[in-house]
């Protein structure tokens, strides 16, 4: 692989971690979040400050994860009081609040961002291997959560909070857990992005980024791990392979979201599942005849 292909693969892996984090919140637990990029940014800026201070990679990534997770836990407290559209507005406000703070703080570079971030020192291939390993662990972790008792509790909260309380599910605790884990994953993605980009700007973590990640989750199928991974790969590579649409990326994402919600409400995962069922039924019908 050339440098371009390696860089593109690294971005795909970072986006997978980021999208799986949002899927933990919105897909598994049903909590709408429009400010996921803020936690991505918290992890990135935390890692940037630590790496410039001379800390090694494991500590910087861990610090990004913890800082974003703690911030997510705090925001998760708001989910205990608001739901649905109001929660979406609250999380969107968190995103704008993050950008406002970053742009006003000289320590964080203000509008000019943070530059001169040292590399990971692993080489392009070595760093891709690290990012790929973390993305794989994130996928395994998401599958484990989905199929565990916690995943069943998340499903109950997402379906109907009041009914979940009736069957003794601690709704508040599971909401906080979803926010903490999902935002911590975003923090890991942010820390990895810091070493990759080596230059951070506030706009890298704006509302457009949150919508892009939400598109990946929605197109893949809310709650589906493999669907989200597939959609993330497609939506990350699509602007690269079709350069003529790169200036209209948001328009294309919007059109995709509309098409998915209209023709495949369960995303790529639901579409693939329905197609498989139809083929199975036709095959069984043919064998019967």
Your description of this structure?
It is a single chain. The protein is mainly alpha-helical and 289 residues long. The protein has one domain (3-288): ABC transporter involved in vitamin B12 uptake, BtuC (Orthogonal Bundle), CATH 1.10.3470. It has twelve helices and no strands. Helix 1 (3-28) packs parallel to helix 5 (123-147).
Describe the protein's topology.
Layout: H1 3-28, H2 36-52, H3 57-79, H4 84-104, H5 123-147, H6 149-159, H7 161-166, H8 171-197, H9 207-220, H10 225-241, H11 249-263, H12 267-288
- Average pLDDT number: 85
What Rg do the Cα atoms give?
20 Å
Low-confidence stretches: none
Can you tell me the CATH class? Mainly Alpha
Counting H and I runs of at least 4 residues, what is the number of helices?
A: 12
- Distance between the amino and carboxyl termini: 51 Å
């Amino acid at each position: 692989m050339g440098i371009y292909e390696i860089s593109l693969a690294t971005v795909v892996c970072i986006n997978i971690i980021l999208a799986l984090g949002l899927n933990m919140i919105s897909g598994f637990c049903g909590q709408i979040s429009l400010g996921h990029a803020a936690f991505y940014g918290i992890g990135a800026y935390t890692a940037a400050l630590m790496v410039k201070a001379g800390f090694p990679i494991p500590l910087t990534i861990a610090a990004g994860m913890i800082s974003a997770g703690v911030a997510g836990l705090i925001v998760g407290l708001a989910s205990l009081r608001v739901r649905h559209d109001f929660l979406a507005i609250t999380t969107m406000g968190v995103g704008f609040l993050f950008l406002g703070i970053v742009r006003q703080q000289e320590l964080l570079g203000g509008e000019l961002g943070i530059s001169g971030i040292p590399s990971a020192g692993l080489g392009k291939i070595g760093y891709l291997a690290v990012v790929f390993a973390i993305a794989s662990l994130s996928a395994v972790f998401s599958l484990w959560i989905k199929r565990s008792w916690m995943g069943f509790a998340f499903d109950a909260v997402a379906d109907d909070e009041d009914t979940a309380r009736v069957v003794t599910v601690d709704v508040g605790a599971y909401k906080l857990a979803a926010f903490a884990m999902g935002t911590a994953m975003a923090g890991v993605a942010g820390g990895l992005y810091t070493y990759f980009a080596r230059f951070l700007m506030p706009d890298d973590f704006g509302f457009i980024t949150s919508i892009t990640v939400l598109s990946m989750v929605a197109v893949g199928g809310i709650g589906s791990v493999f669907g989200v991974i597939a959609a993330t790969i497609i939506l990350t590579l699509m602007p690269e392979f079709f350069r003529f649409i790169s200036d209209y990326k948001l328009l294309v994402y919007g059109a995709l979201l509309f098409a998915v919600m209209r023709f495949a409400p369960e995303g790529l995962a639901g579409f693939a599942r329905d197609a498989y069922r139809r083929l199975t039924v036709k095959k069984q019908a043919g064998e019967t005849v």
